[in-house]
Amino acid sequence: MPNPTDWITVGALAEGFAPEAFILPQLADLAGRTLTLHFANGWIIEHRFEADALHWHAADGHSTGSAPYRATSVRPGIYLVDFIKHEAGQAWSISLVLDTLSQSFTAVLGRLPEASQVERGLYARALAGEPLTDVQAHFHHGSLDRPWQDGACPHAPTQELVGLRNRYRYSPTEEYEHIYLNERYYSWQCLKGVEQGLCDTDRAHYYKIAEQLYLFVWREKIVPTLGLVMIDLQQHRSDGKIFGYQGADFDALSNFPVSSHCSVVNRTEHGL
């Protein structure tokens, strides 16, 4: 078992997860399709999918480009599309929950901190009343192929996961446990694998996408990491990604898929 102080980079974590990982296959469902995303904030961005690349163009010209993408689904008609957007010298993690059943979407835009930000200590942040992590996650909602109207997207923050203790098997060698503490935080521990013995409590975000289907996003403070998964409690499956720096020098990115077989251990009801 690693020493409890042996924190590893996201690149090393990716290497540990890779052998025999329970990764969902890349879907070809979206290839050849064009979807126009109408954001609640007024953005209108066309997304054209090819087999190996996604091309996007904003109607107001603020964003245009292309990138490789990953498209998966844990529930028929609802897709998770993930890619990295490089613009103006910055890298953004873009994750789209495309809900063709309700013609709506949720977009998660993530960004990693620079080395100078990470070097600032947690104690100083706490005394200043600042977030303990500089990993960013911005949430946007909208409608697919139709103008936005209030209420067009049913995806909403939820507390339905709060109190749940869930076990995630990502491969024969990698296994974790999550405890969803409240609407802002969750705790994790590695039961088996390259981070065995490590644990922490981090900032969390929960959205209900459909019945027993949730978007869960977390932002870690020790090793700057953005995690994002779709959790299907009906099928006992999760799928998503982990985004961070490849190594300790912050000069390369790692954005690797994570899929699991998951099961509920128990649920705590505090009755407050």
Separation, N- and C-terminal Cα atoms: 38 Å
Share of helical residues:
under 10%
Q: What is the chain-wise order of helices and strands?
A: HEEEEEEEEHHEEEEEEEEEE
Q: How would a crystallographer describe the biggest sheet?
A: 9 strands, antiparallel
Helix/strand/pairing class, anyone? Answer: mainly beta
Number of domains: 1
Helix count, per DSSP? 3
Radius of gyration from the alpha-carbon trace, in angstroms: 18 Å
What is the strand arrangement across the widest sheet? Answer: 4-3-2-1-9-8-7-6-5
Average pLDDT reading: 95
Number of separate strands: 18
Strand content: over 45%
Low-confidence stretches: none
What is the approximate shape? globular
